[in-house]
Amino acid sequence: MRNRDRQTPDDQSFIIPEIIAMMDEMEDEDAIDHPSASKTTHGSNKDPDDLSEVMDEILEPKSHETESKLADSADTDKHAERGSKKQQSQVDRDIELLSLIKDKERLHQLLSAELVSKEPSAPSQSAHNAHNNEADKNKSSNKQHVSSDKGQKHAQSHSAQHESQSKFKKQGKSQQQGHAHGGQEEQVEPIPSSIDQYLKKLEDAGFHTSFDIVVREMTLGDKRTALFFYNGLVKDTVLTDVLTRLTYLQPDTISTNALHDFLHYYVPAVQVKAIDEWDDMLLEVMSGASAFYIDGENKAIIIDAKAFPSRGPEEPSLERVVRGARDGFVETLMVNVSLVRRRLRDPMLRYEIVRVGQRTQTDVCIAYVEDITDPELIESIRDKIQQVKLDGLPLADKQLEEATVKRGWNPYPLVRYSERPDVVAAHLLEGNVAVFVDTSPSVMLLPTTFFDLVQHAEENRQTPFMGTYLRWVRFIGIMASLFLLPIWFLFVLEPGLKPVALEFIGPTKTGKIPMVIQFLLAELGVDLLRMAAVHTPTPLATAMSLIAAIMIGDIAVSTGLFINEVILYMAVAAVGMFATPSYELGLANRIVRILLIVCVAVFKVPGFVIATTLVLLTLAMERSFNRPYMWPFIPFDLKAMINIIVRPPVLYNRTRPNLLRPKQRDKMPRS
User: Which chain regions cross the lipid bilayer (predicted)?
Assistant: First the structure.
């Protein structure tokens, strides 16, 4: 700082010992070079040349390089010529210097004014350090060494202060530039400090227009207040208790800082905080909180008293088990994360919240175990979610999946959904990331593979042997839903391909319409029945099943439109599709089955081979969050493939999948 009035006495005194030490050093050198020189008053042995040079350094205007010149003056004086002629001006300066030395108070003021007021720069600091090193070599005095160390430390502290001030100035400029551009940072709208203006702004938010907006005005302790909330999103009993407690306040119990008193002393709620931005307050209230406003304050107290309409946890219809828990996720985010936290009591379990959608502001929770999950996977998922730019997510997780995964027209799912808390907890322990979306009972598990989608919780609720058997049955059903109809159709078109043991395969009659049309109509009929079952009320479901089985199936065969074999194999393929644990995977397999049937009808054997190869290549090249979709088949991992084919006992499954790149590879300590 150039204003020397702001310098402290300690800051002013650190250079004076340096000047005195320098003058003593010059005095000793002159005594060696000129032992017969006359002494001045008070024992000063200064040569006039040296005194004049020091006087010039003090009286001349100083810049940032003057300190370095002072530090090097002792070395330059050794080689100066002592026999030069003296000028009268130099003598006058010598006399003035001697008078300054004699008057210590005046010398102290002059040195403080001319030297201490200068800011140390990088060159001056380096010169000062060089001077200290030279002084350490030539001087043995402890007093001079201590003064040099003090000067160096003080110069370093000045340099640190200068750097911090420069950094603060740069930050201030960058913030000003961000506000000037306007497109990078949004304008912050404060909360009005007058209750009349506050109520007027609430009218812009729908007050007096939307019937579910409630504003309760009261005078508490001689202070006008307003409680703002949405009817149906809050617990009225909690707010009633809060207002009952506040009605006992008297004017003399509230200080001038009313907000502080209400926030810390008088509002009997568990979760409260103060907010000073209008948009943040509206968002909190629309999320189910209540805003308590006090006249004269530019902040509002947010009271968390949420009570969303919700149903109780029930067993998911798509993931039913014979043995196991019967609870499932619901449409409330807090209930869902609590169900997982109840099963996974690990302090390393993390729940990160992100809001997506400019209008809906949907809460999205990213769950993971910090010391297990790969940090790059977490960062990738977090970045993809934060980059979503939409008006909102009214369809919750499905829209979020399309906005983040971006698989295009690929029918196969790259995300696994689950409605069971135990399944989500198990995947978190493996190293997966779970994504909860508010208003959705399904949770996304990332990343996923094709073989993750064909496993079911029931397999782990049985013994390893029975679990393996159930898994094989499920695999057979999935393969039948894919290849049974195309292969049978290929044998019908190419009878020479049938083995001798399968000579009985084949229709005795072809029907009135081509067989490929029969397959396509049967596929459409099964889809139509499935959609009708979803939209049919439960009491009418039995009647619809009778109509589908008797009237449609039997009459269609009797009239000759379909043959028996087509209906039979289509029923087997439909059962295999319904046995697929992932509903999305079952739909994708149906599309592939139709593709194979069409290729077989047009190109026969080459069509079947080429279509199957293209499907496998497409799945092999697919990746889910930078993980191969067909792992452990492609790339092949023998140990992981065995764990897919056989359900291993829990004590033998000691390691986590290397596909997830977990921080901790072992699940349990090795014995």
Answer: 472-493, 540-561, 567-587, 594-617
